[in-house]
Design goal:
Structural class: mainly alpha
Shape: globular
Radius of gyration: 14 Å
Oligomer: single chain
Number of strands: 0
Largest sheet: none
Number of helices: 8
């Protein structure tokens, strides 16, 4: 497991940074991953590039929310021991499920199109900025727990 800088895991500060990134045009996955990158020693440019395809529900397909994907990418970075020891994926999967379950509990869905209210008579469940806030908060809480 990679080192987690708990001093940088201030939820509000991370949410504010993610919102600022989103306002600059980062997709939801990039906003979350880049906001959390300094807390886990992940290069900002690498986080940005690796999560570029996950916006708008994975490449605009409105499937899994990009904000969740950004948080999951960070979990993979933290847990992976690299190709020399590909046995850490089970732990990463567990954390990924925790991210998704907590997000679904807050928002009733993990699907971008459903969250945005696409093809729904009831309208959106949550805005992209709200999803970014939620995924960032959830990831921060999980990272704090890992650092203990």
């Amino acid at each position: 497991m990679k080192q987690i800088d708990t001093a940088l895991l201030d939820i509000k500060a991370c949410q504010d940074q993610a919102a600022e990134y989103h306002g600059r045009g980062f997709n939801c996955a990039q906003a979350v991953a880049c906001a959390l990158a300094p807390t886990v020693g992940l290069n900002h440019e690498t986080a940005f590039a690796l999560t570029e395809g996950f916006g708008a529900g994975m490449g605009g397909m409105t499937e899994t929310c990009g904000a969740i994907s950004g948080a999951v990418a960070v979990m993979g970075w933290v847990m992976s021991e690299g190709p020399e020891n590909p046995k850490t994926k089970g732990l990463t999967y567990k954390l990924s499920r925790q991210v998704a379950a907590a997000f679904k509990e807050k928002n009733s869905s993990t699907v971008c199109g459903t969250l945005k209210g696409i093809d729904s008579e009831n309208g959106p469940l949550r805005s992209c900025p709200g999803c970014i806030d939620d995924a960032t908060e959830i990831a921060c809480e999980i990272l704090k727990g890992l650092a203990k």
